[in-house]
Amino acid sequence: MSSTKVLDNQNIRLQGSIVVPGDKSISHRSIMFGAIAKGKTTVSGFLLGEDCLSTIDCFRKLGVNIEVNGTDVTIQSDGMDNWKEPKEVLYTGNSGTTTRLMLGILSGTHLHTVMTGDASIGKRPMRRVTDPLRLMGAKIAGRENGQYTPLAIQGTKLKAIDYTMPVASAQVKSAILLAGLRAEGTTIVREKEISRDHTERMLKQFGANIEVQEGIISFQGGQQLQATHVNVPGDISSAAFFLVAGAITPNSEITMENVGVNPTRAGILEVLEKMGADITVTIEDEHAAEPTATITIRSSSLQATTIEGEIIPRLIDEIPIIALLATQAQGTTVIRNAEELKVKETDRITAVVTELKKLGANIEATDDGMVIHGPTALGGGQLQSYGDHRIGMMSVVASFISSSPIQIDDTDCIAVSYPSFFDHVRELKNEIY
Ligand code: S3P
């Protein structure tokens, strides 16, 4: 397998400051919105992760001019009415966000397009998006009646829907809202549990009129987006790995600036506080389109907790690393209502439980989460990432507290969301003796 790494991190502590890369969800959306709007959109702090590069690649194939200069991106678009019909298949790589949001965007264009991704994307459910889009009139064909890629989309005229979300999913919500941009009438999305709201915030930033009230989003079709500047904050889902690393690795102290702390994403901060972590969050800019903070974490003793209900969508991507955190906490941590983990880049309930057990953790899978008894000292072992960036990074963080080396089979996948992850590990790592 490619990029096997042996991590020999015994007797280390983590100390210093890092700036985590740009938020993945917001980076994707900045390209999509910039391509939809007529004119020049500029983006700073863009994440050069593989997933976001897949989004750029798809829009280039639609004829949108996108220039990347470090983490600055310029999108020059003649508006979506002037996109070209691509001769090639749009390849979305490992990116669920690209695949699902593009379905919503492409459904209301004048174009025929075909989308496909890697082996993991080929297993991820798409009916959750194609079903509501079909209610809007979208013409989408794909394996198992539109459940799996490759998917063919024949753009057409759409009509608005009033849709109650059966699962808490920002990808589904965003696909419907982006289709709603081109639909006749007022699109309404009702959420029982609030998922990340980057699409709603960015629609406002691009000049759209959108109403959000107690989980009900209303949005009039036919609005034109105005090109603008997007400042992408650091990704709290990437910061999460070093928040946990700092909390569990003895004698550590890590500071991260410019971390996005949008409340629909910041559930991990609440969990860390509840578990007794030594954490300081200083808000930098409360009124920005996306609020940011400087966060410092120091190692401390931790107590178990229960994580369930409305907080789950606000920390869904952080559950693998929270599971590792819980192995070091006193007592029994219960995570429930998190069945969505089964349909991420891999089945993250099975992956987390299998891999942490190999290190000696006392952890069991349940139907909708896991139960972790702690604290347990972790040993070394041979771990798999399952090609999932977040499982790979969880395993690297485990090596900071394991009593002997950890070998991880495939760490290349980490570049999906955090290409500079190992540089940051090197910067923070101090040998104790
Ligand atoms: C994302 C939404 C979440 C998250 C994913 C990114 C987004 O997925 O897990 O990493 O950018 O909208 P769901 O909305 O499917 O839960």
UniProtKB/TrEMBL annotation:
Pfam families: EPSP_synthase. Phosphoenolpyruvate binds at K24, G96, R124, Q171, R348, R390. It catalyses: 3-phosphoshikimate + phosphoenolpyruvate = 5-O-(1-carboxyvinyl)-3-phosphoshikimate + phosphate. One of its GO terms (cellular component) is cytoplasm. Residues 13-424 form the Enolpyruvate transferase domain. Pathway: Metabolic intermediate biosynthesis; chorismate biosynthesis; chorismate from D-erythrose 4-phosphate and phosphoenolpyruvate: step 6/7. GO terms for molecular function: 3-phosphoshikimate 1-carboxyvinyltransferase activity. Its EC number is 2.5.1.19. The active site is at D317. Its main location: cytoplasm. 3-phosphoshikimate binds at K24, S25, R29, S169, Q171, D317, K344. It is found in: Cytoplasm. PROSITE patterns: EPSP_SYNTHASE_1, EPSP_SYNTHASE_2. Belongs to the EPSP synthase family. Monomer. HAMAP family: EPSP_synth. Catalyzes the transfer of the enolpyruvyl moiety of phosphoenolpyruvate (PEP) to the 5-hydroxyl of shikimate-3-phosphate (S3P) to produce enolpyruvyl shikimate-3-phosphate and inorganic phosphate. This is 3-phosphoshikimate 1-carboxyvinyltransferase. It comes from Lysinibacillus halotolerans. The gene is aroA.
